[in-house]
Amino acid sequence: MKKLTPFLISGILLLGVAACDNTAKTSANAPNSTQQEDIKTPDTKTVQNNQDDATSETRRAQANSDIRAREQRNNVTGGDAKRADGDLESEVRSKLEVNITGGQLTVAAKDGAVTISGTVPNEKDLGKIEPLAKEIKGVNSVTNKAVVAAAVPSDSNQPKSNNQ
What is the pTM of this model? Predict the structure, then answer.
């Protein structure tokens, strides 16, 4: 037992560090950070895959259930205005994922200030980002670095051959 306890504690700490390292993303293809240079125009296949995933009944039900559970937990604890950065990132990402199905967005939070970057398919979705993020308790300000990027055909993203 004495040998197992340090092993379990170190495993939990390692898992905690790994879990806190990533920013929340609305899709696997979303940028890895909220820095502008990471933003790339998605191809049509990627956008279609993201939309299919986001609009699937299972995924939508899961995201809505997560949002409701978080809201209930926040209400039980008094709706704390001071929230952990990871909680804010996750909640804002879930909210955006359910309401902006064609986007590839990354969410980062620091002391209630949320930064969102990536791409959305149109101006209407771009305009939804800030109001949706502000619906989450604990979000004090929103910096929207997302851009409208219409999907490009899949073959347009292929590197050009030098043999032509």
Answer: 0.57
